[in-house]
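Pasting as-is:
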Amino acid sequence: MTRSSRRALLARAAALCALPAGAALAQSPRSGYPSRPITLVVPFPPGGATDLMARSIGQRFTRAWGQPVTIENKPGAGGMLAASQVAKAGADGHTLFFGAGAQLAVNASLYSNVPYDTARDFAPVALVGSVANLLVAHPSQPFARLADLIQRARAEPGKLSYASPGSGSTAHLAMELLKVEAGLDIVHVPYKGAAGGVTDVLGNQVPLMIVSMPSVVGHVKTGKLVALGITDLRRSPALPDVPPFADTLPGFEATGWYGLVAPAQTPAAIVQQLGAEVNAALQDAEVRRSFESQGIQVLGSSPEQFAAHIAAETRKWATVIAKARIKAD
């Protein structure tokens, strides 16, 4: 996420929070939406940042409209299985995609045969939040900070490996950028989501993992994992003792973002209703506390702002991937 886009989105979030209580609550249009249960398709297994946010938003939809919301976790193929399922779904607002920048902005440059086109096949609803990535290690590993890892990796090229939630994830791209900028040779071990990689680094089967903060913040706080650095420019209130990568590599930043989209051609009234309810959820004190305690920065946006954000991020990561010569595994 670029600094200018983040400032604009934070301004939008502040404006939303200034609304009177209940002002952003959506009212069902005369069409009676939703008329049946809603499915939120998530491109990762349960337990990661995307799943956490999707479930919070889904619970809000149920409370507001009285319809059940099912979270369908569908990992695989860099999130393309889940995204393509929603792209082909009926444009009536009952099947939605809660995805990340990887699926909505990165995959188009990383893979040669993406089965959907974000601009053509989706109607942006709202940007929900952003998350920095943490580089973590098993406590038995000889790393306390990023500088320690860089020194070790340079001394032993190709001998270290790191786990990520999957090829094309922001975490993967962040680590590949680190390798380029620091001149490192570390082997990538992609997983289908965060949970499997976290399990293996906790068991010291993989020495390192780079992953979104919500997936590991609890393990860092309890000492089960050691955080070497965070990919935001600033320290996180959730883990204030963990330094940014930028302390070692000035200017380094690679945060992930998450949002809700509907199939293209979904009626504008339904898109607006969904967006209003998402933004109302992000004003809820309980939701904000839950997100922020896990290192999630609460955002919020209009459909138009989210569309512009996706377009800007698509351009940004296309340039990064080309310059770094990053390939999907």
